[in-house]
Amino acid sequence: MDMTRIRDRMVEHHVTRRGIHDQSVIEAMRTVPREKFVPPGSEEFAYEDAPLSIGEGQTISQPFIVALMLEKASLNAGDKVLEVGTGSGYASALISRIARHVYSIERHEKLALQARERFEKLRYRNIDVRVGDGSKGWAKAAPFDAIIVSAGAPEVPTALIEQLNLGGRLIIPVGGSEGQRLKRLTRTSAAAFEEEDLGGVRFVPLIGEDAWTATHPMYTSTAPSLPKTVASEPSSPQDAQGGGMGKIDKLPALPHQHHQEAEIRLTIDDEGDTSRA
Q1: Which residue in 95, 40, 24, 86 sits closest to 61, CA to CA?
Q2: Exactly one of 42, 53, 61, 236 is catalytic; which is it?
């Protein structure tokens, strides 16, 4: 099976034809072998524009939603990027082909370990993976030029806002069971942010101290309010779907929705207390 040809066809039919124009995103999607990020036996389905189960109640996101979030993050070659929700590792791999360094947080240790192994095999050495609460970000590695969150939060977690560099972009689904909106927040000064609405989406919940808890089937909000300095600038809605994340605690299985070159390391627990070479 010619995966290169199938990959090119996926990019043409499910990415560029649907309005993705960022050449760095397009080239990354032509380069990264998506079939390496799906469970064994699912390779032939890797390039369909649909999610695939990766275990732990999570999925690898459809190609279009991954491309959309990366394009809206306006990634540059020198950027340091935080991804909340490692999942299969596919989005982190794409980001690593565009940006300088990627820090990725996943609440499921098994998924984090699998993603790390994939990065090692592909020699993607500018990705650090950590198991922990994604709603708290990665303070020791901050500030970030971009933060991409692959799970829906009730409100924008304050920690993620605070970890943005000046000019930094945060891409995050926000909302509850009544519906989610994909938001882009850009830090314009020390205390001010520009907010844009990128359209309706559906992601699994972001589980964490400053996001959702899993004590109720519809989830319980524990998130703080967004600072009042955010100015709203709505843009044209684009319907999409996406995937999930949270923290390391043992939690009930979540719904099957779309998830999403220095030393690679996997850090367990709070801010790097334990690491695996």
Answers
A1: 86
A2: 61
